[in-house]
Structures are given as structure tokens and as C-alpha cells.
Specification:
Number of strands: 10
CATH superfamily of one domain: L,D-transpeptidase catalytic domain-like
Strand order of the largest sheet: 5-4-3-10-6-7-8-9
Length: 220
């Protein structure tokens, strides 16, 4: 009986020696040079790894709208305050004045209908005449805004006689905060509805140098 078991074990060992196991190696996939790759194993561990490419393409940046502080840096001199504003419509020029002399001069965009004094709401004209800066807003649809005191009594009487609304909300302001409106404003001259528009950095200066109540004269 012992001889039988010894013979059976010997036969099993001989079968293992006579039938070798073939092993197949899978070469590693070399990622392409200069590209960001990641190797992910799909399915079981017995399957070869696949190289998966991830492209990185940053979207174009939106225009930056700077919100500058009204407080100057320590040690910086305070800007001189203007005592009057003069706008020359045909020259597209705004001047900050002090004691009859210009402190700053800026190029401006006006309403899309540049000729003549504003007559009614929606006509696209920038008013002409003498007004005041009556308030300010740093949370409007534009980068900072100084409100002009249009319409005055004469403007209202003139519009009433014609049976129309004189309109209102005439501002000195910066560029639109909405990116699409900002893009349109860069492509067109005199793009406002009757306001006076400057660049944002220029609006920072005007904001700091013009107090509420300052007189503004808008000339043809």
C-alpha cells in the first residue's frame, strides 16, 4: 500500500516538471514627451495599463475690474481737490479745474447722439449747461459713478411743454462691470445713453478729487 502512494506522488511531481507555465510580460507604455499623461488601469490587474492624456487649456481671462481703495498709502500726498468740472462735448474732453486752472484732463465717451442738449428720455444725448455733482455710487452697473443734477427746473419745464419725460440718471462713470457690456464699450465710441464715461483708473482720480456739490459745466 505504501509503495502505491509513493508511486502516485512521484507521478504528480513528474507531471508538473514536464508541463512548464509560460509567462508573458507586457511592456510599459511610455508616455509622450512634453505632454501631461496619467496611466490608468482598466478592468482587472491582468489587463495592460492604458495611457490616458489630459490636456490643460486655460480659458481666456475676463477683463479685470479694479476696486481701488479711497485711502492713499501711508505717506502719500492727498490729491488736490477740484472746485469745478468742465466738459467739452465736441472735443470729448473733461477737465478738473481749480482756481481757473486745469488739474487733470481726460478723454471721454458721451451719449450715442452727441449733438445738442438732452431733450427727453431715451434720445441718447448728453445734457448741456451748468449742474452739480449731487451724489456718488460705488455699486452701480459701472465702475464708480458720480451723479449729475440733471434735470434741473428748466429741463423739466421744457420737457413738460413738449409732453415728454426729461429723463435722468446722468452720470460720470467708469467702464461697465458686465463683461459683455465692457467688450461692446471697447469697440464703439460714444457708447453711453447720455452719460460721461472715462477709464477705470481715471475714474479713481476723479472720484478722489471731486466732492459732492462740485459744479460741472457741460459745453457743446
Amino acid at each position: 500500500m505504501r509503495v502505491f502512494w509513493i508511486a502516485a506522488i512521484a507521478a504528480a511531481l513528474a507531471a508538473c516538471v514536464d508541463r512548464p507555465v509560460a509567462v508573458t510580460t507586457v511592456p510599459d507604455a511610455a508616455p509622450p514627451r512634453g505632454e501631461q499623461t496619467a496611466a490608468l488601469t482598466a478592468g482587472s490587474f491582468a489587463e495592460p495599463a492604458r495611457a490616458v492624456r489630459f490636456d490643460i487649456a486655460a480659458p481666456p481671462p475676463l477683463p479685470a475690474f479694479r476696486r481701488a481703495s479711497l485711502t492713499p498709502p501711508d505717506g502719500a500726498p492727498l490729491p488736490p481737490m477740484a472746485d469745478r468740472i468742465v466738459v467739452h462735448k465736441m472735443d470729448r474732453r473733461l477737465e478738473l479745474m481749480r482756481e481757473g486752472k486745469p488739474l487733470r484732463t481726460y478723454r471721454v465717451d458721451l451719449g450715442w447722439q452727441t449733438l445738442g442738449h438732452k431733450q427727453e428720455e431715451g434720445d441718447g444725448r448728453t445734457p448741456e449747461g451748468v449742474y452739480q455733482i449731487e451724489s456718488r455710487n460705488d455699486r452701480s452697473n459701472y465702475y464708480r459713478a458720480l451723479k449729475i443734477s440733471y434735470p434741473n427746473g428748466e429741463d423739466r419745464a421744457r420737457a413738460r411743454a413738449r409732453g415728454v419725460s426729461p429723463g435722468g440718471l446722468i452720470l460720470i462713470h467708469g467702464q461697465p462691470n458686465n463683461p459683455r457690456s465692457w467688450e461692446r464699450a471697447q469697440k464703439k465710441r460714444d457708447w453711453t445713453e447720455g452719460c460721461i464715461a472715462v477709464r477705470n483708473a481715471e475714474m479713481d482720480e476723479i472720484w478722489a478729487m471731486v466732492a459732492d456739490g462740485t459744479e460741472i459745466e457741460i459745453r457743446p
